[in-house]
Amino acid sequence: MQILSFLFDKHIDKTVLAVAVAMSLLLLTRSEESKVRSARAVSDVLLYPIHSTEKYFSDIDELREENRKLRRLSASLYHEREKLLQFKDERNRLRRLAGLREDSFFDFLPCEVTARSSNRFHNSVTIDRGGSDGVRVGMAVVGYRGVVGRVTQVFGSTSRVLLLNNKSISVSCRDKRSRVVGILEWDKGNLFKLEFIGKEEDVIVGDTLLTSGLGELFPKGFPLGTVFHVTEERSGLYRNVGVVSMANLKTLEELFVVVGGRDWENTRIYEELEQSLKD
């Protein structure tokens, strides 16, 4: 160790030159293929800082472009928000004239799925939010595209969510287009049946089903599924209506607990959006 210290501390230039010459002579004695591999290995080591710096700046450029896209999206959402506020004012004026209560909308608590039941006849998931986060039994749980289930058990920091693909759950729903009301029941996989639909009722393929709010098990107006087939029963009294769930109930990862209603006049969410645009 003392010899190496002496060589590199006192004669660094001569030592580096000697090492370079020794490596060159060593490479000359090897096969052509081995020389190429060795040269590539040396160049990778020498050029690693340059490649790392290049990747760093490339990542920065990608983040800047992503940030620009998010800002454009935020600006678009801000514009949509202004239009919705105008519609809100008009709708609430009409509801007041009709003697109806003003609308409210909901707060959503984001959560992640941490476990899934292994019982094929009892489909449920565990989420990483519990009583300490304000979760209560009976709250609806939704995904990015629609309703997935409701909370049935609450612990300190986790909760159990019973999914829609259970025979024990029936959901009152309404056809978004025709306003026909029916009961949605699980069939298999992500497929459901819309029950109690008479042969004269207006339900067609492609219709979207929303929660009706009747029975108060699920809040009103959340997407449930899409009608994919309609046939007549043999009795001729009812129609067989097949529905595919909006959310893929077998691949759930990120969810939202519907934790409560919020008045239209509560502007907290808008203030947060405006602040994000300024930042």
Give me some keywords for this one.
279 residues, 12 strands, Thrombin, subunit H, six-stranded antiparallel β-barrel, six-stranded antiparallel beta barrel, 37% helix, 30% strand, alpha+beta
Q: Structural class of the helices, strands and pairings?
A: alpha+beta
- Give the strand tally: 12
Order of helices and strands: HHHEEEEEEEEEEEEH
Mean pLDDT across every amino acid position:
81
Q: Would you state the CATH class of the domain at 106-263?
A: Mainly Beta
Basic shape: elongated
Termini separation: 56 Å
Superfamily at the CATH H level of the domain at 106-263? Rod shape-determining protein MreC, domain 1
Kindly report the spatial arrangement of strands forming the biggest sheet.
1-2-5-4-3-12
Low-confidence stretches: none
Query: Portion of residues in helices?
Result: 25-40%
Annotated CATH topology of the domain at 106-263 = Thrombin, subunit H
The biggest sheet, with number of strands, parallel, antiparallel or mixed sense and barrel status, is: 6 strands, antiparallel, barrel
Contiguous helical run count: 4
CATH architecture of the domain at 106-263: Beta Barrel
Q: Which band does the percent of strand residues land in?
A: 25-35%
Instruction: Output the radius of gyration.
Output: 31 Å
